[in-house]
């Protein structure tokens, strides 16, 4: 897989954020990202060296595009897998949270925005 495969990336940057799967929910923390992620450009500052410099960075493979339930439906690789009827991961509700600006537990403010992926 080469440049053509990497061109499927929509450069959303969501794969660089902390995320967790809780049952049917995919929670993405928009305030927590990899130390090499530039939030202004949504690009990796060390892209060509990312697998060497960042132990958490995982290469996007066809198998991940097909089966990884932690990837949002907006991901270009997921779109490719859906287009070719190769997406087998369970659909999840996506919840975006802001851990640094999250209201207290006593607040009536919503903790996140939700939409079905």
Could you tell me how far the N terminus lies from the C terminus, measured between alpha carbons in angstroms?
Answer: 26 Å
- What gyration radius follows from the Cα positions, in whole Å? 15 Å
- Work out the count of structural domains: 1
What is the 3D shape?
globular
Beta-strand portion reads 15-25%
Quick structural overview:
The protein has helices at 3-6, 50-53, 62-67, 76-83, and strands at 17-22, 25-33, 37-38, 43-44, 93-97, 112-116.
Structure in words:
The protein has 117 residues and is α+β, with helices and mostly antiparallel strands. The protein has one domain (3-34, 60-116). Helix content is 19%, strand content 25%. It contains 4 helices and 6 strands, in the order αββββαααββ. The chain has helices at 3-6, 50-53, 62-67, 76-83; strands at residues 17-22, 25-33, 37-38, 43-44, 93-97, 112-116. Strands 1-2-5-6 form a 4-stranded mixed β-sheet, with no helix packed on it. A two-stranded antiparallel sheet has the order 3-4. The longest helix is centred in the last third of the chain and has 8 residues, at 76-83. The protein is globular and about 40 Å long.
Name some characteristics of this structure:
alpha+beta; 4-stranded mixed β-sheet; two-stranded antiparallel ribbon; disordered C terminus
What secondary-structure arrangement, pairings included, does this model have?
Blueprint: H1 3-6, E1 17-22, E2 25-33, E3 37-38, E4 43-44, H2 50-53, H3 62-67, H4 76-83, E5 93-97, E6 112-116
Parallel strand pairs: 2-5
Antiparallel strand pairs: 1-2, 3-4, 5-6
